[in-house]
Amino acid sequence: NINGYEFELIDLPGSYSLTPTTLEEKIVRKFIMETPPDVLINIVDARNLYRSLGLTLQLAQSGIPMVVAVNMMDEARRLGIKIDIRALSEHLGVPVAPIIARTGEGLGHLTNTLIKMVKGELKQRPPQISCPIPLQEAVQSIAHEIKQIQPSSRLNEVFVAERLLDDLEPVKISNRGNGQDAQLQEKVKQARLKIEKNLGMSIPTACAQCRFNSVKGLMLETTTAAVTASDEVTKKLDSVFLHKYLGIPIFLGIIFILFQGIYALGTPLQDLIGNGFAALQDFLRVSTIFQTMPDFLSRMIIDGVIEGVGVVIAFFPIIALFFIFMSLIEDSGYMARAAFLLDHLMHVIGLDGKAFINVLLGYGCNVPAVMGTRILSSQHNRIITMLVIPFTLCSARLQVFLFVSGILFAPTVAPWIIFGFYLFSFLMVILIGLFLKKVHFAGEPEPFIMEIPPYRLPTVKTVALRAWEEMKAFLNRASTMIVLGVIAVWLLTNLPPGATTGIGQTWAVQIGKAVKPIFHPLGIEWQQIIALLFGFIAKEIVIGSLAIVYAGDPVRQIAAQVTPLQGISFMVFT
């Protein structure tokens, strides 16, 4: 809600052109052509306007109200780049707003401009783009035909005519079914053949040349750049971080230091929260309200919900530190370089660096990572990536590993265990991907083009916001799924009424022993089996389940009853 106006914000995939060559660009083109929005916000990078303005020129011709947001103005100033915003706006024919998204600078001006565009207080005109005369004549002729077929279209007919000519996929113009659309498509086809013969090049190439010649002129008119030392610093850092032989060991070293830091800083806070929940349980046991409550209900709340959820919440500092450190790595510009480093390994299994981005997302959460494979352009890439993502060590599994390794291994050994599991996880991704490539999905990986961002110092605000979003999701799961899970586990370990866990009368013991032959190769006991079974529903429930089945003092109980080998076996299967 902005100044009394309600907006539905639709974030389209990143795109360089409306002449589609990738799945993302096809999605953007389809959306613009079929469901034109009330207003467009075109975000461009102040550090590299040349790359961004080709798409901006296309969008400015569409006739859809648009505001251009020039982002990262602080980075541009740091690089010695000066942009004449007023001149840029005049040449593009649309309002231009300079912003710094990560600090919020300029966002007020952007939203005010947006409101004025919606109210019709600001006018825009299509930019002038010089093109060869045969192409201009064909565009004008087809635009006239479009005006006759669809006189009330929200899209500029010249824009639609250019899309018809430079897009190989047909664009539907009319729904009337009177044959006019088919006639127009035939006229476009004939015009395309004639123009390509006259120009000696494809129409998409000719249109792209026109746009980027215009962009070059825009750059000369609106920007100046000074030589700075930052490029030299970036080159020196990249010579180390992207080194052919040292790059990957440095990456692994950074990840290992990350886990050392998590354990060193998080363990004292974890103990503090754990002791707090233990004190809360002791207080509630002697409180009047729980003394008068039915015994079964009070035990379920204190020994079930509070015990289980308390153990999970005690890991809040460790998980928070994980996301904070990951945000620092990402915002510094290093994570993009990690994708570049590991692109070669992805090629070994028939994937590319773009697929690695999805695999990397899997180390946060498998679900959005699998959903994100839709952006991969080839089917074999999508299938292989979807099948290897479940082998990544997601943050929910990480919670289990931190819990188990923290109990069974010394503080100096536990980080090595976690680090080893990450290596094992990535090795499994490579091996499974290689198997799938050789046996089922042979094919050549596609070329991978990726923008390497400059090194930058992450801001406290940005890191805190990103970490908080992740932690908010964790707390939401803890307040719903984990609570329900630990209640279910507690009921299984305390029913039927009067049953005793120690002599195998409870439902949990009976279920665990019934399926134990299946899990026999793992060498684990029924308590871990129950936790694993609930882990199939959600990995977040595993820790709470362990806290319930090892009742009393779960940390001491697990340390006394579970061997390190059983712990490793349990974590591998998790």
TrEMBL record:
Cell compartment(s), UniProt: Cell inner membrane; Cell membrane
Keywords: Cell membrane, GTP-binding, Ion transport, Iron, Iron transport, Membrane, Nucleotide-binding, Transmembrane, Transmembrane helix, Transport
Protein name from the UniProt record: Ferrous iron transport protein B
Membrane topology: Multi-pass membrane protein
Record GO terms (molecular function): ferrous iron transmembrane transporter activity; GTP binding
PROSITE patterns (UniProt xref): G_FEOB
Chain ranges of the FeoB-type G domain: 1-120
Principal place of residence: membrane
Binding, GTP: 11-14, 71-74
Family listed: Belongs to the TRAFAC class TrmE-Era-EngA-EngB-Septin-like GTPase superfamily. FeoB GTPase (TC 9.A.8) family.
Domain of life, source organism: Bacteria
Stated role: Probable transporter of a GTP-driven Fe(2+) uptake system.
Lineage, uppermost ranks: Bacteria, Pseudomonadati, Calditrichota, Calditrichia, Calditrichales
The keyword Transport belongs to this UniProt entry's keyword annotation: yes
Annotated InterPro entries: Fe2_transport_prot-B (IPR003373), Fe2_transport_prot_B_C (IPR011640), FeoB_GTPase (IPR050860), G_FEOB_dom (IPR030389), Gate_dom (IPR011642), P-loop_NTPase (IPR027417)
GO cellular-component term (any): plasma membrane
Pfam family, any one: Gate
Membrane spanning residue stretches: 245-266, 305-329, 349-371, 383-410, 416-436, 474-492, 529-551
